[in-house]
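Blinded run. Sample ID left blank on purpose so nobody reads anything into the name before looking at the predicted structure. Input follows.
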Amino acid sequence: MSLSFNDAQLLLKEHHLLIDSSKGVADEFTSVTYDSRKVTPESLFFCKGNFKAEYLASAVEKGATGYVSEKKYATSAQLAYLIVKDVQKAMALLGAAFYGYPQNDLFIIGITGTKGKTTSAYLTKGILDQANHGKTALFSTVDRTVGPRPEDTFKSNLTTPESLDLFHDMRTAVDNGMTHLVMEVSSQAYKKNRVYGLHYNVGVFLNISPDHVGENEHPTFEDYLICKEQILANSDYCILNADTEHFTDIYYAAKSDIDADHLITFTHLDKNELPDGKQIDIQIENVKETLMASTFKLHALSKKAQDLKIENQYTISIPGDYNEGNATSAIIAALLAKVQSNDAVKGLKDVKIAGRMEMVETKQHGLVYIDYAHNYASLHALLEFLRSQQKVDHLIVVVGSTGNKGVSRRAGFGKAITEGADYAILTSDDPGYEDPMQIAKEIDQHIDHEKVKVQFELDREKAIAQAITMAHPGDVVVLAGKGEDKYQKINGVDTPYPNDLNVAKKIVEGLEDE
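Blinded prediction complete.
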């Protein structure tokens, strides 16, 4: 892989980003990076984020021959530079060029939403893998898969990675024979221009609810919504969940960006009209639901849906009507990728998603559920579902909230707990640089103590032990927020943590061995 200085300069000019430039002695760059620790000779170095001049000095010392920045630095005349209006946009454009535009060799499905992105992504991959014999790459909150070998799947550090990492992994996927890519697209990916210039064959908008509003994320909900809606303007086809909040805004935003024939909507509800009076395309009918699975039918209400040949009965191994919606988006996206509905039926039924609706059964302490539910919408839906499926004597929730981001989640957790729980143990969940007790107290302020008994235990393993120990047959314990996360983010350090499922299993084994 390489990128010539002249090509980089021309590309930035074409996008009206270039302010000033100097070639120095650099004809060609053989690597691109924003991390001074990863610089190799003939690197093009990007000065981004909370940048310090010493990072550039370190990069030059290691052999960088050029840099991209929004500011000019005093350096040797031999060092090339490209001064730009927006370094994040420049990095996305030049990263795609350096890696040979790998997106052109992939059918890309982008998925956004406040909840359900990861579930939808895994379900979509399951269907596509059934049809293309495992040639589907995945960029998710949990894992990134860039090839068929075990070593080609690894832990993600961001829902949507930085643009250079994104295009690097796309190139690896293409070189490994992958033909499709399913990727979660976060609001921050648009806020920080990580996906600037990237186009999707299919864009999925699952839902939106107040979340990710805080000092290090979005200043307002309106900003959050606008960032989410950017996927609509950058997709050939759009799939919309008509049951989401703010659907009218989302629908009209989609209509303004794409042709009506390329906009597909679905609903769980007994409604068939869109905000402009047109017909909803697909309706979901629940057939059977247990704590272990959901079976549902899809009905084609419009000519568009009929042309997809989507009508069939499907089963997923994760329950809940919200997961039927996630699966429906996956089915539609896969059919747009020319998959047959029978492949969707086969591909869906065995998909397992780590950290989503996992269950530990006990002899004397009820059922324990582990789920990544990390905001009001997902926790409320989970608790409501559990109540609807069986008689629950007491519902005990263990939950914390992340520090330095998603501050609005704290009030949401309090509201969801009040609506669905009997007991709450407030604990820690990636507190970052904040005091976990202060975070817990903020959640507690929004809990109605006449309805819910609340305890504090900031050691998460002890909190889980406390919840399971206090549970009796007929009770349900919900461990919310972390899923299969194997670390706690504390004061800038990823502190190892066994994950909620392993902790719960160990505690149950200990109790039942007594």
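Unblinding after everyone has recorded impressions. The first helix runs from residue 5 to 14.
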